[in-house]
């Protein structure tokens, strides 16, 4: 009985740790054809996914405040904000997770590379 209780506790703990969006699910939502399938001329799915993952992971590895970054505002296509801190990156991932694909294409939740 005790090993079952321990196993159940570990499973519950793993579910708490794995909550919310992460870099992989965020980038997949943006670019995977069965999800939003956003395309960028001259760039392959692999290229945009790699850039997305790299920028996301770099942002997460740098502690800091969000500052004036607000991914819920529509950003002009001529601007590409950088994910500089973990707080900015967390806001960005939440924004992408909660935003419809057609709005991602309109450059909400920037950066969408």
What does this structure look like?
Helices cover 51% and strands 0% of the residues. With 113 residues, the chain is mainly α. The protein has one domain. The chain is globular, with a radius of gyration of 17 Å. Mean pLDDT is 88; it is low at 3-16.
Brief account:
The chain has 113 residues and is mainly α. The chain has helices at 2-17, 23-31, 45-60, 86-97, 101-105.
Please tag this protein with its features.
113 residues; mainly alpha; 5 helices; globular; disordered N terminus
> What's the domain count?
1
Q: Mean pLDDT, as a whole number?
A: 88
Task: Give the termini distance in whole angstroms.
Answer: 51 Å
Helix content: 40-55%
**Number of extended strands:** 0
Catalogue the unreliable spans.
3-16
* H/E topology pattern: HHHHH
The amount of beta strand, in percent, is under 5%
List the helices and strands and how they pair.
Blueprint: H1 2-17, H2 23-31, H3 45-60, H4 86-97, H5 101-105
């Amino acid at each position: 009985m005790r090993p079952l209780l321990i196993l159940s506790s570990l499973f519950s703990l793993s579910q708490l740790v794995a909550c919310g969006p992460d870099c992989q699910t965020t980038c997949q939502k943006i670019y995977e054809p069965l999800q939003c399938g956003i395309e960028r001329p001259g760039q392959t799915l692999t290229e945009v996914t790699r850039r997305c993952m790299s920028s996301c992971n770099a942002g997460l590895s740098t502690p800091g405040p969000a500052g004036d970054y607000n991914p819920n505002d529509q950003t002009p296509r001529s601007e590409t904000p950088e994910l500089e801190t973990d707080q900015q990156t967390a806001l960005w991932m939440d924004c992408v997770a909660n935003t419809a694909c057609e709005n991602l294409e309109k450059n909400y939740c920037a950066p969408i590379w």
